[in-house]
Structures are given as structure tokens and as C-alpha cells.
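stage 2 :: seqdesign
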């Protein structure tokens, strides 16, 4: 089956693109818009990740238009479904003929889109998924490191499991506990990676002197966590961790309260990144902790607009009357990187775009993005760029609602803390 890239190469070689048939001239030659495809989970259980998408894309279009640049962004909803994510990626490639694919938010969306782009030789940049579930999850044999191969067309920027484990254990060290940890790992890309006995939490926690109780993988949208709660109570777990979708953590935490299970610390990835997820718990959200990828206090600014992190967050709240959320920074950075890449390459030449992505070194609203292999194992060095990570706790505000207070920055000292860890009860 001929790929889109091979078709364009053949057409260029035979002069078809010079106007000898009905095929369009390259965008550069026509002054046509550079076409970006963007996929994210705008509906379904992961929809909170895409809450800021419209705000970010509107801002990107305004900034590029003001700079005299011509862009079109074609947006597709993955519906929080991996099969749907692959379908819409194919639509963007075949029907919309995008010059560059952008995708954000959890392996359930990033992986099928990136895999589709790799097969079609279409340049792709993704973010908002730890790099191990993204890289390892797309391998033909995820369980055999010797078989893992780098990708040609797809690139990713975010932090890794090593970073979130360091942040969580640094936060836990601030509170006296029995070092007994309960793990909540679902049967999905994130859960399988976080709970993996080789690359996930188990070996690192054991080495650090923690005892992990892992009741096994559960299915997303589970409505009864009694088995997990009973296992954690029996093991006397004073710390809970895991990577859950927002509705599942709400179910778990409410049932834990009802069944009298009250750990000192609950550090949960993914589920409680968002103010609305914590607000749904009422006062029971106080002092829950999570990773913090981006906040208004991060000391970075946009390469597109010059806005600080604080100004971007403030702009979102002013436009939507909603509190800031962490994906705002990373979705904005995704479009920053796209604009930077397209300044350095012919949009119609996929190979040139891929080369430009690989050569990126850009200071963005989430920090420096560079595919230079820094702090990465050799097998991931080509395709992954790491960004900084800190940890924080949700604190009830006097007037209602919650603040996310950064409580640990050992892994990124340039990002300021706003307090120290407090036990839940």
C-alpha cells in the first residue's frame, strides 16, 4: 500500500505537482495554509484533559495571524477511545492531508495516533503522557527490551515514570509513615506501565524501603473498589498511589471514606490533576497530592506570545471563568513547537519536517523542549524530550474551592515551592 509520502515523492518526480494534473501545488508554492491536525480526548472520561483546547487553539491562530503566518488547525475528538483516535488520525492524514500531526493527553490517545503516523510516514509530535507508556507501549513486543526500536516520524515531550516516582517519594519523605503503600493501577497504558515490575513503581519503591500492596489490574470505570480497599486496610497501608481516570478516583475515594479507610497520604497521577475532580470530592479533597507538570508559578514564558505561565493561566480563567488546569501549558507548548518547526522546514516535505523536529531546541511555557537525548536511556534518546516535574497538594481555600500548592521541587529547583506536605488526617 503506497503511503502519502511516497505518493508525493512520485508526483514531484514526475512533474505532477507542477500543475500537469488536478493535484494541488505544494502549500509553500501556493501560499496555502500550513495544515496542522490535532487529536485529543474532548469527550468521554478523559475529557478534562482537553478542557483548554479551544482557548489554546484560538490563541495560537490569533498569534500566528498577527505574525503574518497562515495556519489551519483541523481538530478531532478521540472520544477517550484508542480505536477512535486511530480512525481520526487516518482521516486527518488521508482526507485532510495535514502537514504535521499534533496529539495530546494520555496513552489512550497519543499512542494510536503516533502509531498511525509512523505507519503513514507523517510527522507527529505528542505530549501529556509519560514517555515509557508512549514509547514502550507502541513497541511490537513491549516485554522484550532487546526488540525495542526508535521511531522515524513520531516525537514526544513530557516527563517519565522515573520523575513521578522521585516526586512522589520525595513528598512522602516529608511525613512520618510506616512506608506501606497501596497501588491502584488500571488495565490501561498508564496503569500497566506504572505497575510494571521492571520499569514501574514496584522496583523503585522496594529499593527505597517501601512495601507495595498491589491488588492487581482493574478495569476503568469500575464501580466497586471494596476489594482494593480491604487489601489496603489488611496491609495497614498509610500511603496510596496510582494512576486513575478522574471518575474512578472519585468512586474509590468516596468508598474509602465510607469504609473507614483513611491513609495519611494519597498521591494519585492523572485523576486529581484537575480542580473540578477535587471539587467533586467536597472537603474530602483536602491535602490530596499529585504530580505538577505545569502551574502559573512555573518560571517559563511562551515563545509564541511572550506570555508568562501566570499570564497564560490568568487569560484562560478570564476567557472561560474556570480555574487553570495543568494541560493548558503543555497544549500551548505543543503548538509553540509546531510553529517553531514549521518556520524551519518546507511544510510539504515530510522528511524535512521530521528533520526539523529532531533539531528542535526551544524555550517554551513548560521549559526547554529539545530532542537531544538528555537524561534518557539510549533506546528512547531519538524520540523523547524530557520536561521538568514537581509535586503538590490540593488545599481548601477559605472562600471555597481549592489551590494546588507545590510542596516538592527537588527534581526541579528552579520551580518555586509554596509550602510543605501535610497529612490528610
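stage 2 :: out
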Amino acid at each position: 500500500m503506497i503511503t502519502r509520502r511516497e505518493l508525493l515523492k512520485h508526483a514531484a518526480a514526475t512533474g505532477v505537482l507542477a500543475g500537469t494534473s488536478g493535484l494541488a501545488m505544494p502549500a509553500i508554492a501556493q501560499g496555502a495554509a500550513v495544515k496542522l491536525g490535532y487529536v485529543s480526548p474532548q469527550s468521554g472520561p478523559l475529557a478534562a484533559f482537553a478542557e483548554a483546547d479551544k482557548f489554546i487553539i484560538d490563541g495560537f491562530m490569533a498569534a500566528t495571524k498577527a505574525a503574518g503566518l497562515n495556519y489551519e488547525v483541523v481538530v478531532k475528538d478521540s472520544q477517550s477511545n484508542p480505536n477512535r483516535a486511530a480512525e481520526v488520525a487516518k482521516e486527518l492524514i488521508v482526507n485532510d492531508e495535514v502537514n504535521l500531526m499534533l496529539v495530546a493527553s494520555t496513552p489512550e490517545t497519543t499512542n494510536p495516533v503516533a502509531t498511525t503516523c509512523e505507519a503513514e510516514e507523517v510527522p507527529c509530535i505528542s505530549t501529556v503522557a509519560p514517555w515509557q507508556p508512549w514509547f514502550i507501549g507502541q513497541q511490537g513486543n513491549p516485554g522484550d527490551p532487546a526488540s525495542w526500536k526508535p521511531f522515524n516520524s513520531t516525537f514526544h515531550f513530557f516527563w517519565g515514570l522515573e520523575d513521578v516516582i522521585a516526586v512522589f517519594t520525595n513528598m512522602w519523605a516529608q511525613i512520618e509513615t510506616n512506608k506501606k503503600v497501596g497501588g491502584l493501577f488500571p488495565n490501561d497504558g498508564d496503569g500497566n506501565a506504572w505497575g510494571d515490575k521492571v520499569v514501574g513503581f514496584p522496583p523503585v519503591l522496594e529499593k527505597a524501603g517501601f512495601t507495595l500492596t498491589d491488588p492487581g489490574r482493574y478495569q476503568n470505570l469500575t464501580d466497586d473498589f471494596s476489594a482494593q480497599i480491604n487489601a489496603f486496610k489488611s496491609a495497614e497501608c498509610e500511603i496510596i498511589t496510582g494512576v486513575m481516570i478522574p471518575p474512578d478516583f472519585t468512586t474509590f475515594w468516596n468508598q474509602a471514606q465510607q469504609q473507614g479507610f483513611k491513609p495519611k497520604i494519597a498521591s494519585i497521577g492523572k485523576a486529581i490533576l484537575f480542580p473540578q475532580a477535587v471539587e467533586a470530592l467536597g472537603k474530602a479533597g483536602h491535602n490530596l497530592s499529585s504530580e505538577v507538570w505545569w502551574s502559573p508559578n512555573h518560571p517559563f514564558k511562551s515563545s509564541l506570545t511572550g506570555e508568562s505561565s501566570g499570564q497564560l493561566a490568568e487569560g484562560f480563567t478570564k476567557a472561560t471563568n474556570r480555574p487553570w488546569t495543568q494541560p493548558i501549558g503543555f497544549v500551548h507548548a505543543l503548538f509553540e513547537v509546531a510553529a517553531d518547526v514549521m518556520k524551519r522546514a518546507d511544510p510539504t516535505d515530510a522528511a524535512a519536517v521530521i528533520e526539523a523536529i529532531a533539531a528542535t531546541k526551544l524555550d517554551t511555557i513548560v521549559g526547554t523542549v529539545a530532542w537531544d537525548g538528555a537524561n534518557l536511556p539510549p533506546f528512547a534518546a531519538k524520540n523523547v524530550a524530557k520536561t521538568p516535574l514537581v509535586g503538590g497538594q490540593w488545599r481548601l481555600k477559605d472562600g471555597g474551592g481549592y489551590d494546588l500548592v507545590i510542596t516538592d521541587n527537588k527534581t526541579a529547583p528552579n520551580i518555586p515551592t509554596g509550602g510543605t506536605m501535610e497529612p490528610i488526617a
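stage 3 :: structure notes
- The radius of gyration is 22 Å.
- The first helix runs from residue 4 to 14.
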